[in-house]
Design brief:
Elements (H helix, E strand, L loop, with lengths): L10 H12 L5 H7 L4 H4 L3 E2 L7 E2 L19 H35 L11 H10 L9 H17 L13 H9 L7 H11 L8 H31 L5 E5 L9 E6 L4 H10 L2 H9 L5 E6 H11 L3 E3 L4 H6 L3 E6 L7 H7 L4 E4 L10 E2 L7 H15 L14 E5 L3 H9 L7 H8 L5 E5 L11 H12 L2 E5 L1 H9 L6 H6 L2 H10 L4 E3 L6 H14 L11 E5 L5 H12 L3 E4 L9 H15 L3 E3 L3 H18 L3 H9 L1 H7 L1
Parallel strand pairs: 4-5, 4-7, 5-6, 7-8, 8-9, 11-12, 11-14, 12-13, 14-15, 15-16
Antiparallel strand pairs: 1-2, 3-10
Bound molecules: FE(4)-NI(1)-S(5) cluster.
């Protein structure tokens, strides 16, 4: 263990880690100190897809100059490409299975069979129905919604043709996808095909394997994730800017604390409704608590924060620490990013850990399954269990008193409206400010925390560097939460941290320099926003022409790789930090880091230093500005005093 390792830059996290250490509670941080990553696995030089291995193929002196091969003859390039593709399949499957659950619930809601759910955003329903080619005319909202639900569900099992949302992308982009044979047909089909192609003895050409990885990732970004976002918006409301609070300090000593953790916002929505039920309130008073305090964790937190202003307890690496407070009566978990370690931590306190999805159980945890037909009843049952558990707190609780105010909920629709106004909603002001150079470009900084690097540090260092240099940042997931805790999600942050040009624009519109766009599936909102920029005009005719870049500096999950791959295949230069999973093969890495630029006009990069990574992004943005003939405009903004006076 490295004694000097800084575990987190977040003070609430540091305080709770001290408590956990004192009380000898195992957390992801202590377990990471005890277990070094496998050096062969880190570079993905290991093949275990058949029982003749596992074959270990790390670089070694004795093999220098030779092609490393497994016992079946599979080259290191095939092995690394297979491993990479399988991760993308898993990431796509995760987002898309979430989308399937949402779609099935949506269909039940449309038919009036989902307890507590309704169609909230009728305007978005009509817009999305048009995308799906559904006739609107004089039809009822119910009819349209049912047809949309049915058509959306078909996207998963479709075998031929292309996904509906593919035609939302700029035409030039669609042509590139066609040219390289990566236009996704059906969501499930692309995932299944990766699993088949990477089985022993099937696809054994790394370029060809990665082609399918790209097609699968596009089925995530322009398929599963986009369907989730759209149908969730229609059912629960499209987010608009909302004031919220973030960090472990949102937990309350004298209230019943319930944390919703996971990803699918279905049950969390109903928990919000149930927490306002008079009977639940009465029960809360009966046990002597001042109220019910619902708080979010991980991407579920982003969902309920954006739509209801529900406080957010923290991001990925804080999940166990929330329980270490001893103040949490109950935590619900559904799917993804939930550590099994939660069960051990909850057992140290009175906390009830409750799994709620029929696809995920945790050994030892209670299980109360969510089904749309009885969702509200289940939500109330869960809250009753939490209330009954309030008197069982063991000893004094300790809540770190750190939390920050944030503004979240910048959907594509909101940005459109904020910039252009209700009657002439448009991206023109954003494009104009990019063209005149006040805004240098736009970066999407997203993704996880990873315990192998200081919690939140890379997100914050990278984003501060970007906004200081007039790059507007769009953020989601754990990155968005890191920004909230560091005070970057308020309009005031523009004056404090942003460069002069970006600050001027943010102050004029009243927005933060970093826009919280939601959960990880909402990275699809970034694709939609970028497409709107292209369609607005003046910045080229493809996503790859835009002065934009993407990053996930603290990634850890397979979903992050799927996201990165669809960003890259959509023409976006994308930088990852912490670790890179193809270092075992120079050919695979060269293909993704260099040859992709020729093919998809977007490419991957890896840089562990977040400030250097920010500069890779800024240099790329400047390169794109130059190609658009915009470099002069920025020089004027930076150096022309008359223009500065005019701005003032
Ligand atoms: Ni996305 Fe990473 Fe998980 Fe959300 Fe957080 S860890 S890939 S940001 S909570 S999905």
């Amino acid at each position: 263990m490295d004694e000097k390792r800084i575990q987190s830059i977040d003070i609430a996290t540091v305080e709770m880690l001290e408590k956990a250490q004192k009380e000898q509670i195992s957390t992801v941080f202590s377990r990471a100190d005890e277990m070094k990553p496998c050096p062969i696995g880190v570079e993905e030089s290991c093949c275990k897809i058949c029982a003749m291995g596992p074959c270990r193929l790390p670089r070694s002196k004795k093999d220098e100059g030779k092609v490393r091969k497994g016992v079946c003859g599979a080259t290191i390039d095939t092995v690394v490409a297979r491993n990479f593709a399988r991760k993308i399949a898993a990431g796509t499957a995760s987002h898309s299975d979430h989308a399937r659950e949402v779609t099935e619930t949506f269909l039940k809601a449309a038919r009036g069979e989902a307890q507590g759910f309704a169609i909230k955003d009728e305007i978005k329903l009509l817009e999305v129905a048009l995308d799906f080619g559904i006739t609107i005319e004089e039809r009822s909202i119910k009819d349209i919604a049912i047809e949309l639900g049915e058509k959306a569900l078909q996207e998963f099992g479709k075998q031929h043709g292309q996904l509906v949302y593919i035609s939302k992308a700029p035409l030039k982009r669609q042509e590139i996808w066609k040219k390289f044979g990566v236009t996704p047909r059906g969501i499930d089909r692309e995932v299944v095909e990766i699993m088949h192609r990477t089985h022993m003895g099937v696809d054994q050409d790394y370029v060809h394997i990665l082609q399918q990885a790209t097609r699968c990732a596009l089925a995530d970004g322009w398929g599963g994730s986009m369907i989730s976002t759209d149908l969730q918006d229609i059912m629960f409301g499209t987010p608009v800017p909302v004031l919220g609070t973030i960090n472990l300090g949102v937990l309350k000593e004298d209230e019943v604390n319930v944390i919703v953790h996971g990803h699918e916002p279905l049950l969390p929505e109903l928990l919000v409704t149930a927490s306002r039920d008079p009977e639940i309130k009465r029960l809360t008073e009966k046990v002597g608590a001042k109220g019910i305090n619902l708080a979010g964790m991980c991407c579920s937190a982003n969902e309920v924060l954006m739509r209801h202003g529900i406080p957010c307890a923290g991001n990925f690496l804080q999940q166990e620490l929330a329980l270490v407070t001893g103040a949490v009566e109950l935590m619900t978990v559904d799917v993804q990013c939930q550590m099994q370690g939660l069960q051990d931590v909850s057992a140290c306190f009175h906390t009830k850990l409750v799994s709620t999805s029929d696809r995920a159980k945790i050994e030892g945890a209670a299980h109360m399954e969510f089904h749309p037909e009885t969702g509200l009843d289940t939500a109330k049952k869960i809250l009753r269990l939490a209330i009954e558990n309030y008197p069982n707190r063991r000893g004094p609780v300790y809540i770190p008193h750190h939390s920050r105010d944030i503004v979240a909920g910048f959907s594509h629709e909101t940005i459109n409206y904020l910039l252009g106004g209700l009657f002439r909603a448009s991206y023109k002001p954003l494009n104009d400010n990019i063209i005149n150079g006040r805004i240098r470009g736009v970066a999407g900084v997203v993704g996880c925390n990873n315990v192998r690097t200081t919690h939140d540090a890379a997100h914050i260092a990278m984003i501060k560097e970007l906004i200081k240099n007039d790059v507007l940042v769009l953020t989601t997931g754990c990155s968005a939460m890191a920004c909230g805790k560091a005070g970057l999600l308020t309009p005031e942050a523009a004056r404090e941290y942003a460069g002069e040009g970006l600050a001027e624009v943010c102050e004029a519109v009243g927005i933060p320099p970093v826009l919280h766009m939601g959960a990880c599936v909402d990275n699809s909102r970034i694709l939609v926003a970028a497409t709107a920029m292209v369609k607005e005009g003046g910045l080229g005719d493809d996503l790859s022409d835009l002065p934009v870049a993407g990053a996930a500096p603290e990634w850890m999950s397979e979903k992050a790789l799927a996201i990165g791959q669809y960003f890259v295949a959509s023409g976006v230069f994308t930088v990852f930090g912490t670790t890179w999973p193809t270092t075992g093969s120079e050919k695979v890495t060269r293909h993704l880091f260099e040859e992709y630029e020729e093919m998809y006009k977007g490419k991957w990069a890896f840089e562990n230093d977040p400030v250097k990574a920010a500069w890779l992004m800024i240099d790329h943005i400047d390169k794109k500005r130059k190609a658009l003939g915009l470099e002069k405009a920025r020089e004027r903004v930076l150096f022309d005093m008359a223009m500065r006076r005019e701005l003032a």
